[in-house]
């Protein structure tokens, strides 16, 4: 403790001005040394520090400008992409609507074609049925006519003599010939 009080007491004591020597009193020399070092640093370091700060400031400003340019470019790209998206959506809607109308048109065409085919098949069926009915009727007529003719011939053969029989056959052949000409 005595050293600490001695050092405070020695602050008031300065060595004589004519002598040169080292002052080993730490408390007395530190503030002087610090003020000299700070003064030299401020005087010589001010320019370097200003240059460093200016460089840093310019890099920050350049980075901000670049970021702004990139942001503007990104906004422009976003707007172009949105416009392209709107265009594509409109085209998709148009294709979808055209596709639906084309599908409906094809569906209607298919229904109409199927309906026409069904009508033609129905007409062919009716014509075939009518033809088959006419053929069946003609066959039945021929069979009835042949049976009637055979029955008449049987009756005539039993009732007629040869001469009368010959005249009846000739008359019937003439009638059949006339009927064939009419049907042809």
Describe the fold and architecture.
The chain is mainly alpha-helical. 90% of the residues lie in helices and 0% in strands. Mean pLDDT is 82; it is low at 7-14.
Overall shape: it is rod-shaped
Regions with little confidence, pLDDT below 50 for 5+ residues: 7-14
Radius of gyration: 67 Å
The count of helical stretches stands at 3
User: What can be said about the biggest beta sheet?
Assistant: none
Number of strands: 0
Concise synopsis of the structure shown:
It is a single-pass membrane protein. By secondary structure, the chain is mainly α. It has helices spanning about 1-10, 25-160, 160-184.
What's the structural blueprint in terms of helices and strands?
Elements: H1 2-11, H2 26-159, H3 162-183
Features:
single chain, 184 residues, mainly alpha, 90% helix, 0% strand, transmembrane helix, ATP synthesis, proton-transporting ATP synthase activity, rotational mechanism
């Amino acid at each position: 403790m005595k050293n600490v009080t001695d050092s405070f007491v020695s602050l008031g004591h300065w060595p004589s001005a004519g002598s040169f020597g080292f002052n080993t009193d730490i408390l007395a020399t530190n503030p002087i040394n610090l003020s000299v070092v700070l003064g030299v640093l401020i005087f010589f370091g001010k320019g370097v520090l200003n240059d460093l700060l200016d460089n840093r400031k310019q890099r920050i400003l350049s980075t901000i400008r670049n970021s702004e340019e990139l942001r503007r470019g990104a906004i422009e790209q976003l707007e172009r992409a949105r416009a392209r998206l709107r265009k594509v959506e409109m085209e998709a809607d148009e294709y979808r609507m055209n596709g639906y109308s084309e599908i409906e048109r094809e569906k209607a065409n298919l229904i109409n074609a199927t309906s026409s085919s069904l009508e033609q098949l129905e007409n062919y069926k009716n014509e075939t049925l009518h033809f088959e009915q006419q053929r069946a009727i003609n066959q039945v007529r021929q069979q009835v006519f042949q049976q009637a003719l055979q029955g008449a011939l049987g009756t005539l053969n039993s009732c007629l003599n040869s001469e009368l029989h010959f005249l009846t056959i000739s008359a019937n052949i003439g009638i059949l010939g006339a009927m064939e000409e009419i049907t042809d």
